[in-house]
Amino acid sequence: MTGTPARAAPSAGARARWRRGGTPSLPPLPPLLRLLIGTQLAFNIGFFAVLPFLAEHLGTAVGMAGWLVGLVLGLRTFSQQGLFVVGGALADRYGVRPVVLAGCALRIAGFAWLGWAESTWAVIGAVLLIGFAAALFSPAVESEVARQAVCWEEGGGGPRTRVLALFTVAGQAGAFVGPLLGALLLAVDFRTVCLAGAAVFVLVLAGHLRLLPQHIPGRAAAPAPGGARALLRDRRFLALCLAYGVYLLAYNQLYLALPLEVERAAGSQAPLAWLFALSSALVVTAQLPVTRWATARLDLRRSMAAGLLLISAGFAAVAATRPAAWTGGAALLPSAGLVVLLTLGQMLLAPAARAWVPDLAGEGRLGLYTGALSSVSGLVVLAGSALTGSLLEAGLPAAVPWLVLTALPAAAVALLPRHGPVRP
């Protein structure tokens, strides 16, 4: 595990408790973990208060053409996801605190700039700043959560996947609350929404200035340069990235293939809001029980494999019914099945993938590897989304695109490293 001199084996009693699925009263999380998990909640509240309303604002208030709106949104994604590896490497080199604080400051400036931006170049500059801010603080926070989760596990507190599942729940709760806050403030204007998002990050910045340690005990400094070359030669890690990228590509179909299917079945995309709410509710209510079940029965590789197979089954449900071309309320059942199975697959897969990274990262390289997991898998999504979009528009038989989407997660099981760590 990166950042600790040696691994302390969990006690036999702790191993037995985890295999039984845990105890009603696990030890409380240490203050640093509570701070970082709360950070994820606040990050997503501030971010999702603004993001869902950005495209409409750019198209109506700013008057951008549709292609330009798409370009701006794509640039934001690239400046964030594509540069995670940079933020992770900086966290390894300079520590978590300065990188998180810098990211918060840039996000505040970006949201404030976006609120007043009226020209195309001003909007592009603001969204690039907003994206790069996340590329700084997100991998720093995620890598430290993973490191602290391993320390908590090694101290007998409980499986690391429980901590990472709680981190996921906090993020999903923020993604649920943020749009509600933004919708309320949009009654004033979009500038107010942006200022509210900036205000959230002002609070986060102030909290971290006070509470985030300057030097986190046990965190190793990055070794000499060369980590990127070692990462690119690490076949096990790259295989994990590719498998995780296929999962993200499948998840991206909630925004690409699913809306098309919902509009075909229902005549509009109005039911999408309910399907997204269903996904959020599942994560918030079921993530921790699902993780507890998986921890007691599956190692990390099997948990990821089971998640991929559930996602594949979700696409298969749509593929099986698509040739019948049903319409109406009942025709939405396959789409609902896809959302449920994809979300359950996510709950098994995402915590396991992030729990695996500390075992693959070299000493002092956890930030780099955490960022690379997002950046490499983001490239998979970028390439795969273009191909998926082409399939959906190619005029093929109705079931063909969905069969391809069914096959991809199932095939990705073979990409998972064969000799991953086994849960103790």
Automatic annotation (TrEMBL):
Location within or outside the cell: Cell membrane
Under SUPFAM superfamilies, the record lists:
MFS general substrate transporter
Task: Note the PANTHER family from the entry.
Answer: MULTIDRUG RESISTANCE PROTEIN MDTH (PTHR23517:SF2), RESISTANCE PROTEIN MDTM, PUTATIVE-RELATED-RELATED (PTHR23517)
What PROSITE patterns has UniProt attached to this entry?
Answer: MFS
- Extract the Gene3D superfamilies matched here: MFS general substrate transporter like domains
Q: What is this protein called?
A: MFS transporter
- Tell me the organism's taxonomic lineage: Bacteria, Bacillati, Actinomycetota, Actinomycetes, Kitasatosporales
Which parts of this chain are annotated as the region Disordered? Answer: 1-23
Signal peptide from the UniProt entry: none
Cite the record's Low complexity compositional bias ranges.
1-15
Q: Which InterPro entries match?
A: MFS, MFS_dom, MFS_trans_sf, MFS_Transporters
Q: Which UniProt keywords apply?
A: Cell membrane, Membrane, Transmembrane, Transmembrane helix, Transport
Q: Where is the Major facilitator superfamily (MFS) profile domain?
A: 26-424
Instruction: Tell me which Pfam families the record gives.
Output: MFS_1
Naturally occurring in which organism (per UniProt): Streptomyces cuspidosporus
Topology in the lipid bilayer: Multi-pass membrane protein
Q: Which residues cross the membrane?
A: 61-78, 99-116, 122-142, 163-184, 190-209, 237-258, 270-291, 303-320, 326-345, 366-387, 399-416
